[in-house]
Design brief:
With about 375 residues, this protein is an alpha/beta fold. The protein is built from 15 helices and 10 strands. The chain is globular. The chain binds N6-methyladenosine-5'-monophosphate (6MZ). N6-methyladenosine-5'-monophosphate binds next to helix 4 and strand 5.
Protein backbone atom coordinates (compact mmCIF):
# COMPACT_ATOMS: atom_id res chain seq x y z
CA UNK A 1 0.00 0.00 0.00
CA UNK A 2 1.51 3.40 -0.94
CA UNK A 3 1.06 6.63 1.07
CA UNK A 4 -2.13 7.67 -0.75
CA UNK A 5 -3.71 4.26 -0.33
CA UNK A 6 -2.79 4.26 3.33
CA UNK A 7 -4.36 7.70 3.75
CA UNK A 8 -7.58 6.47 2.08
CA UNK A 9 -7.53 3.34 4.24
CA UNK A 10 -7.34 5.45 7.40
CA UNK A 11 -9.99 7.84 6.10
CA UNK A 12 -12.39 4.92 5.51
CA UNK A 13 -11.80 3.88 9.10
CA UNK A 14 -12.42 7.39 10.46
CA UNK A 15 -15.69 8.31 8.77
CA UNK A 16 -19.00 7.38 10.41
CA UNK A 17 -20.53 4.27 8.87
CA UNK A 18 -23.78 2.32 8.97
CA UNK A 19 -23.81 -1.49 8.98
CA UNK A 20 -27.07 -3.10 7.88
CA UNK A 21 -26.06 -6.67 7.01
CA UNK A 22 -24.03 -8.40 9.72
CA UNK A 23 -24.73 -11.90 11.08
CA UNK A 24 -23.86 -12.27 14.75
CA UNK A 25 -22.29 -15.72 14.51
CA UNK A 26 -20.40 -14.78 11.34
CA UNK A 27 -18.88 -11.74 13.04
CA UNK A 28 -17.16 -13.46 15.99
CA UNK A 29 -13.50 -12.66 16.58
CA UNK A 30 -11.13 -15.49 15.54
CA UNK A 31 -9.43 -15.23 18.95
CA UNK A 32 -12.77 -15.87 20.70
CA UNK A 33 -13.59 -18.81 18.42
CA UNK A 34 -10.19 -20.36 19.14
CA UNK A 35 -10.64 -19.84 22.86
CA UNK A 36 -14.09 -21.48 22.79
CA UNK A 37 -12.76 -24.33 20.65
CA UNK A 38 -9.94 -24.91 23.14
CA UNK A 39 -12.39 -25.30 26.02
CA UNK A 40 -14.55 -27.74 24.05
CA UNK A 41 -11.39 -29.58 22.94
CA UNK A 42 -10.36 -30.03 26.58
CA UNK A 43 -13.82 -31.41 27.33
CA UNK A 44 -13.41 -33.89 24.46
CA UNK A 45 -16.42 -32.49 22.54
CA UNK A 46 -14.29 -31.59 19.50
CA UNK A 47 -10.72 -32.15 18.29
CA UNK A 48 -9.17 -28.71 18.82
CA UNK A 49 -6.44 -28.99 16.15
CA UNK A 50 -8.95 -29.91 13.42
CA UNK A 51 -11.28 -27.07 14.36
CA UNK A 52 -8.47 -24.50 14.70
CA UNK A 53 -7.31 -25.38 11.20
CA UNK A 54 -10.80 -24.75 9.78
CA UNK A 55 -11.24 -21.48 11.70
CA UNK A 56 -7.94 -20.06 10.44
CA UNK A 57 -8.40 -21.15 6.82
CA UNK A 58 -8.43 -18.28 4.33
CA UNK A 59 -10.93 -18.35 1.44
CA UNK A 60 -13.97 -20.60 1.56
CA UNK A 61 -16.57 -21.83 -0.90
CA UNK A 62 -20.25 -21.16 -0.07
CA UNK A 63 -20.90 -24.81 1.02
CA UNK A 64 -17.80 -24.68 3.25
CA UNK A 65 -19.17 -21.54 4.92
CA UNK A 66 -22.35 -23.30 5.91
CA UNK A 67 -20.40 -26.27 7.32
CA UNK A 68 -18.45 -23.75 9.32
CA UNK A 69 -21.61 -22.11 10.69
CA UNK A 70 -22.70 -25.50 12.04
CA UNK A 71 -19.36 -25.68 13.80
CA UNK A 72 -19.69 -22.11 15.13
CA UNK A 73 -23.09 -23.00 16.52
CA UNK A 74 -21.54 -25.90 18.47
CA UNK A 75 -19.05 -23.43 19.94
CA UNK A 76 -21.66 -20.82 20.89
CA UNK A 77 -24.52 -22.87 22.33
CA UNK A 78 -24.93 -21.44 25.78
CA UNK A 79 -26.40 -18.18 27.02
CA UNK A 80 -23.19 -16.88 28.47
CA UNK A 81 -21.30 -17.33 25.21
CA UNK A 82 -24.09 -15.75 23.16
CA UNK A 83 -23.98 -12.69 25.45
CA UNK A 84 -20.19 -12.56 25.22
CA UNK A 85 -20.00 -12.70 21.43
CA UNK A 86 -22.73 -10.05 21.12
CA UNK A 87 -20.81 -7.70 23.39
CA UNK A 88 -17.57 -8.22 21.48
CA UNK A 89 -19.16 -7.84 18.04
CA UNK A 90 -20.76 -4.52 19.02
CA UNK A 91 -17.51 -3.25 20.52
CA UNK A 92 -15.61 -4.19 17.35
CA UNK A 93 -18.04 -2.38 15.07
CA UNK A 94 -18.02 0.70 17.30
CA UNK A 95 -14.21 0.71 17.34
CA UNK A 96 -14.19 1.28 13.57
CA UNK A 97 -16.69 4.14 13.81
CA UNK A 98 -19.85 2.28 12.90
CA UNK A 99 -22.48 4.60 14.37
CA UNK A 100 -25.53 2.45 13.61
CA UNK A 101 -25.52 -1.35 13.55
CA UNK A 102 -28.44 -3.55 12.57
CA UNK A 103 -27.24 -6.89 13.87
CA UNK A 104 -29.04 -10.01 12.70
CA UNK A 105 -29.16 -13.41 14.33
CA UNK A 106 -31.18 -16.62 14.16
CA UNK A 107 -32.93 -17.33 17.49
CA UNK A 108 -31.99 -20.91 18.43
CA UNK A 109 -33.45 -23.64 20.59
CA UNK A 110 -31.13 -25.99 22.44
CA UNK A 111 -32.85 -28.22 24.94
CA UNK A 112 -29.56 -29.56 26.33
CA UNK A 113 -28.64 -26.02 27.42
CA UNK A 114 -32.17 -25.04 28.47
CA UNK A 115 -32.25 -22.59 25.59
CA UNK A 116 -35.42 -21.39 23.89
CA UNK A 117 -35.61 -18.87 21.06
CA UNK A 118 -36.67 -16.28 23.61
CA UNK A 119 -33.89 -17.06 26.09
CA UNK A 120 -31.38 -16.96 23.21
CA UNK A 121 -32.56 -13.43 22.41
CA UNK A 122 -32.44 -12.46 26.07
CA UNK A 123 -28.77 -13.49 26.04
CA UNK A 124 -28.20 -11.29 22.96
CA UNK A 125 -29.86 -8.33 24.71
CA UNK A 126 -27.83 -9.03 27.86
CA UNK A 127 -24.73 -8.89 25.66
CA UNK A 128 -25.74 -5.46 24.32
CA UNK A 129 -26.24 -4.21 27.86
CA UNK A 130 -22.85 -5.54 28.91
CA UNK A 131 -20.93 -3.40 26.40
CA UNK A 132 -18.73 -1.06 28.39
CA UNK A 133 -15.99 0.25 26.11
CA UNK A 134 -18.44 2.44 24.15
CA UNK A 135 -21.90 3.95 24.70
CA UNK A 136 -24.70 1.86 23.25
CA UNK A 137 -28.00 3.45 22.32
CA UNK A 138 -30.61 0.73 22.58
CA UNK A 139 -34.36 0.97 22.31
CA UNK A 140 -35.80 1.59 25.74
CA UNK A 141 -38.15 -1.15 26.89
CA UNK A 142 -40.17 1.37 28.94
CA UNK A 143 -40.88 3.83 26.14
CA UNK A 144 -40.19 4.16 22.46
CA UNK A 145 -37.40 6.67 22.99
CA UNK A 146 -33.74 5.75 22.88
CA UNK A 147 -31.62 5.66 25.91
CA UNK A 148 -27.92 5.49 26.31
CA UNK A 149 -26.48 3.28 29.01
CA UNK A 150 -23.91 5.93 29.81
CA UNK A 151 -25.24 9.11 28.29
CA UNK A 152 -21.99 10.98 27.78
CA UNK A 153 -21.90 13.23 24.69
CA UNK A 154 -20.04 12.09 21.57
CA UNK A 155 -18.03 15.31 21.47
CA UNK A 156 -16.66 17.48 24.24
CA UNK A 157 -16.89 21.28 24.04
CA UNK A 158 -13.79 21.49 21.81
CA UNK A 159 -15.37 19.03 19.40
CA UNK A 160 -12.97 16.19 20.30
CA UNK A 161 -14.41 12.70 20.46
CA UNK A 162 -14.77 11.67 24.09
CA UNK A 163 -16.36 8.29 23.88
CA UNK A 164 -17.74 6.43 20.91
CA UNK A 165 -21.45 5.87 20.67
CA UNK A 166 -23.26 3.29 18.58
CA UNK A 167 -26.96 2.80 17.92
CA UNK A 168 -27.80 -0.91 17.84
CA UNK A 169 -30.95 -2.50 16.50
CA UNK A 170 -31.70 -6.21 15.97
CA UNK A 171 -33.10 -8.26 13.12
CA UNK A 172 -34.34 -11.78 13.79
CA UNK A 173 -33.27 -14.22 11.08
CA UNK A 174 -35.31 -17.11 9.79
CA UNK A 175 -33.06 -19.93 8.62
CA UNK A 176 -34.22 -21.45 5.32
CA UNK A 177 -33.92 -24.90 6.95
CA UNK A 178 -36.67 -24.12 9.47
CA UNK A 179 -40.24 -25.37 9.33
CA UNK A 180 -43.07 -22.89 8.74
CA UNK A 181 -44.12 -23.22 12.40
CA UNK A 182 -40.61 -22.43 13.61
CA UNK A 183 -40.34 -19.44 11.25
CA UNK A 184 -43.71 -18.17 12.52
CA UNK A 185 -42.41 -18.46 16.08
CA UNK A 186 -39.48 -16.22 15.16
CA UNK A 187 -41.81 -13.60 13.68
CA UNK A 188 -44.01 -13.61 16.79
CA UNK A 189 -40.90 -13.32 18.97
CA UNK A 190 -39.76 -10.31 16.93
CA UNK A 191 -43.08 -8.60 17.64
CA UNK A 192 -42.75 -9.37 21.33
CA UNK A 193 -39.25 -7.88 21.41
CA UNK A 194 -39.99 -4.68 19.50
CA UNK A 195 -39.46 -2.61 22.64
CA UNK A 196 -36.04 -4.21 23.04
CA UNK A 197 -34.72 -2.97 19.72
CA UNK A 198 -35.92 -5.65 17.28
CA UNK A 199 -36.80 -3.79 14.10
CA UNK A 200 -37.35 -6.43 11.44
CA UNK A 201 -36.98 -9.91 9.98
CA UNK A 202 -34.21 -11.40 7.83
CA UNK A 203 -34.36 -14.55 5.75
CA UNK A 204 -31.00 -16.30 5.44
CA UNK A 205 -29.31 -19.71 5.49
CA UNK A 206 -27.80 -22.02 2.93
CA UNK A 207 -29.36 -21.02 -0.42
CA UNK A 208 -29.28 -24.57 -1.79
CA UNK A 209 -31.45 -25.79 1.09
CA UNK A 210 -35.19 -25.33 1.64
CA UNK A 211 -38.18 -24.37 -0.45
CA UNK A 212 -39.68 -20.91 -0.53
CA UNK A 213 -43.20 -22.19 0.20
CA UNK A 214 -42.00 -23.11 3.72
CA UNK A 215 -40.86 -19.62 4.70
CA UNK A 216 -43.05 -17.34 2.54
CA UNK A 217 -46.09 -17.70 4.90
CA UNK A 218 -43.96 -16.50 7.83
CA UNK A 219 -42.63 -13.57 5.80
CA UNK A 220 -46.18 -12.62 4.83
CA UNK A 221 -47.17 -12.87 8.50
CA UNK A 222 -44.32 -10.46 9.37
CA UNK A 223 -45.53 -8.05 6.70
CA UNK A 224 -49.06 -8.17 8.08
CA UNK A 225 -47.70 -7.33 11.52
CA UNK A 226 -45.84 -4.35 10.07
CA UNK A 227 -42.33 -5.79 10.52
CA UNK A 228 -39.92 -4.70 7.75
CA UNK A 229 -38.23 -7.48 5.78
CA UNK A 230 -34.75 -7.94 4.38
CA UNK A 231 -34.21 -11.11 2.36
CA UNK A 232 -31.13 -12.99 1.17
CA UNK A 233 -32.02 -13.03 -2.48
CA UNK A 234 -30.36 -14.71 -5.48
CA UNK A 235 -27.13 -15.83 -3.83
CA UNK A 236 -27.42 -18.63 -6.36
CA UNK A 237 -29.57 -18.64 -9.51
CA UNK A 238 -33.20 -19.41 -8.49
CA UNK A 239 -35.65 -17.40 -10.54
CA UNK A 240 -38.81 -18.91 -9.04
CA UNK A 241 -37.67 -17.94 -5.56
CA UNK A 242 -36.63 -14.43 -6.61
CA UNK A 243 -40.09 -13.86 -8.08
CA UNK A 244 -41.79 -15.17 -4.93
CA UNK A 245 -39.61 -12.89 -2.81
CA UNK A 246 -40.31 -9.80 -4.88
CA UNK A 247 -44.02 -10.66 -4.65
CA UNK A 248 -43.97 -9.90 -0.92
CA UNK A 249 -42.31 -6.49 -1.37
CA UNK A 250 -39.28 -6.69 0.94
CA UNK A 251 -37.95 -3.38 2.28
CA UNK A 252 -34.35 -4.41 1.43
CA UNK A 253 -32.59 -7.32 -0.21
CA UNK A 254 -29.15 -8.78 0.40
CA UNK A 255 -26.62 -9.97 -2.22
CA UNK A 256 -28.78 -10.06 -5.40
CA UNK A 257 -25.97 -11.76 -7.32
CA UNK A 258 -28.02 -13.72 -9.87
CA UNK A 259 -30.98 -11.61 -10.94
CA UNK A 260 -32.49 -11.68 -14.42
CA UNK A 261 -33.17 -8.51 -16.40
CA UNK A 262 -36.91 -8.60 -15.83
CA UNK A 263 -36.55 -8.89 -12.04
CA UNK A 264 -33.94 -6.10 -12.04
CA UNK A 265 -36.53 -3.91 -13.67
CA UNK A 266 -38.96 -4.65 -10.81
CA UNK A 267 -36.28 -4.05 -8.17
CA UNK A 268 -35.21 -0.80 -9.80
CA UNK A 269 -38.67 0.57 -10.31
CA UNK A 270 -39.53 -0.21 -6.66
CA UNK A 271 -36.12 1.26 -5.62
CA UNK A 272 -35.45 -1.63 -3.22
CA UNK A 273 -32.10 -0.96 -1.51
CA UNK A 274 -29.46 -3.67 -2.03
CA UNK A 275 -27.11 -4.71 0.78
CA UNK A 276 -23.77 -5.15 -0.98
CA UNK A 277 -21.32 -7.67 0.52
CA UNK A 278 -18.25 -7.44 -1.73
CA UNK A 279 -15.71 -9.56 0.12
CA UNK A 280 -18.28 -12.20 1.00
CA UNK A 281 -19.42 -12.49 -2.63
CA UNK A 282 -15.91 -12.74 -4.00
CA UNK A 283 -14.70 -15.16 -1.29
CA UNK A 284 -17.66 -17.45 -1.91
CA UNK A 285 -16.97 -17.27 -5.65
CA UNK A 286 -20.18 -15.47 -6.67
CA UNK A 287 -17.86 -13.18 -8.68
CA UNK A 288 -14.39 -13.71 -10.04
CA UNK A 289 -13.18 -10.38 -8.67
CA UNK A 290 -14.55 -7.16 -7.16
CA UNK A 291 -14.22 -5.53 -10.58
CA UNK A 292 -16.97 -7.85 -11.86
CA UNK A 293 -19.36 -7.09 -9.00
CA UNK A 294 -22.77 -5.56 -9.81
CA UNK A 295 -22.11 -2.81 -7.25
CA UNK A 296 -20.66 -0.62 -9.97
CA UNK A 297 -23.71 -0.89 -12.27
CA UNK A 298 -26.10 -0.21 -9.42
CA UNK A 299 -24.04 2.72 -8.17
CA UNK A 300 -23.76 4.21 -11.66
CA UNK A 301 -27.49 3.94 -12.20
CA UNK A 302 -28.07 5.62 -8.79
CA UNK A 303 -29.89 2.60 -7.41
CA UNK A 304 -29.90 2.62 -3.56
CA UNK A 305 -27.05 0.48 -2.22
CA UNK A 306 -25.39 0.05 1.16
CA UNK A 307 -21.96 -1.48 1.77
CA UNK A 308 -21.99 -4.26 4.37
CA UNK A 309 -19.70 -6.96 5.77
CA UNK A 310 -22.04 -9.99 5.95
CA UNK A 311 -19.71 -12.07 8.16
CA UNK A 312 -16.66 -10.03 9.08
CA UNK A 313 -15.20 -12.82 11.23
CA UNK A 314 -15.68 -15.55 8.67
CA UNK A 315 -14.36 -13.44 5.80
CA UNK A 316 -11.69 -11.52 7.76
CA UNK A 317 -12.96 -8.13 6.72
CA UNK A 318 -14.29 -4.94 8.35
CA UNK A 319 -16.78 -2.35 7.17
CA UNK A 320 -13.92 0.14 6.78
CA UNK A 321 -12.20 -2.38 4.51
CA UNK A 322 -15.34 -2.74 2.37
CA UNK A 323 -15.37 1.06 1.93
CA UNK A 324 -11.68 1.05 1.07
CA UNK A 325 -12.23 -1.71 -1.52
CA UNK A 326 -14.88 0.39 -3.25
CA UNK A 327 -12.74 3.54 -3.24
CA UNK A 328 -9.65 1.75 -4.52
CA UNK A 329 -11.36 -0.53 -7.05
CA UNK A 330 -13.90 1.86 -8.55
CA UNK A 331 -12.08 5.14 -7.97
CA UNK A 332 -14.76 6.93 -5.95
CA UNK A 333 -13.48 10.12 -4.30
CA UNK A 334 -13.97 11.11 -0.66
CA UNK A 335 -17.08 13.18 -1.39
CA UNK A 336 -18.71 10.24 -3.18
CA UNK A 337 -17.65 7.78 -0.47
CA UNK A 338 -18.98 10.00 2.30
CA UNK A 339 -22.29 10.38 0.48
CA UNK A 340 -22.45 6.60 -0.03
CA UNK A 341 -22.00 6.08 3.73
CA UNK A 342 -24.55 8.77 4.57
CA UNK A 343 -27.19 7.55 2.11
CA UNK A 344 -27.63 4.37 4.19
CA UNK A 345 -29.49 6.43 6.84
CA UNK A 346 -32.56 6.33 4.63
CA UNK A 347 -32.58 2.48 4.55
CA UNK A 348 -32.30 1.74 8.29
CA UNK A 349 -35.31 0.07 9.93
CA UNK A 350 -35.10 2.23 13.08
CA UNK A 351 -37.55 5.08 13.62
CA UNK A 352 -37.33 8.69 12.45
CA UNK A 353 -35.80 9.86 15.73
CA UNK A 354 -32.78 7.62 15.14
CA UNK A 355 -32.57 8.70 11.49
CA UNK A 356 -32.52 12.31 12.60
CA UNK A 357 -29.76 11.60 15.13
CA UNK A 358 -27.74 9.87 12.39
CA UNK A 359 -28.19 12.82 10.04
CA UNK A 360 -26.74 15.08 12.74
CA UNK A 361 -23.77 12.74 13.25
CA UNK A 362 -22.94 12.77 9.52
CA UNK A 363 -23.45 16.50 9.27
CA UNK A 364 -21.06 17.11 12.17
CA UNK A 365 -18.45 14.78 10.62
CA UNK A 366 -18.69 16.12 7.06
CA UNK A 367 -16.56 19.24 7.33
CA UNK A 368 -13.66 17.31 8.88
CA UNK A 369 -13.96 14.43 6.43
CA UNK A 370 -14.00 16.15 3.07
C1 LIG B 1 -26.92 -16.86 3.77
C2 LIG B 1 -25.93 -16.55 5.81
C3 LIG B 1 -24.76 -16.04 5.19
O1 LIG B 1 -27.79 -16.18 12.69
O2 LIG B 1 -26.27 -17.80 13.84
N1 LIG B 1 -25.72 -16.54 7.13
N2 LIG B 1 -26.99 -16.95 5.10
N3 LIG B 1 -25.83 -16.40 3.10
C4 LIG B 1 -24.74 -15.99 3.78
N4 LIG B 1 -23.65 -15.57 3.05
C5 LIG B 1 -22.33 -16.07 3.22
N5 LIG B 1 -23.90 -15.70 6.16
C6 LIG B 1 -24.50 -16.01 7.34
O3 LIG B 1 -25.34 -16.19 12.11
C7 LIG B 1 -24.95 -17.24 11.25
C8 LIG B 1 -26.08 -17.62 10.32
O4 LIG B 1 -26.36 -16.55 9.41
C9 LIG B 1 -26.71 -17.05 8.12
C10 LIG B 1 -26.65 -18.57 8.21
O5 LIG B 1 -27.94 -19.05 8.47
C11 LIG B 1 -25.73 -18.79 9.40
O6 LIG B 1 -25.95 -20.04 10.02
P1 LIG B 1 -26.43 -16.40 13.29
O7 LIG B 1 -26.06 -15.37 14.31
Amino acid sequence: MDGRDMEMWEWCHEIPKIELHAHLNGSIRDSTLLELAKVLGEKGVIVFEDVAHVIMKNGRSLPECFKLFDLYHILTTDHETVARITKEVVEDFAAENVVYLELRTTPKKNEAKGMTKQSYMKAVIDGLRAVDTVDVALANSDSSTDYCLEPSPINDTQGRIKRKKIYVRLLLSIDRRETTASAMETVDLAMKLKDYGVVGIDLSGNPVVGECQTFIPALKHAKELGLPLTLHCAEIPNRKEVQAMLGIHPERIGHACFIEEEEWRRIKSAKIPIEICLTSNVRTERFHSINDHHFVDLYSSKHPVVLCTDDCGLFSTTLSNEYYLVASTFGLDKGQMFQLARSAIEFVFADNGVKQALRSIFEAAESNAI
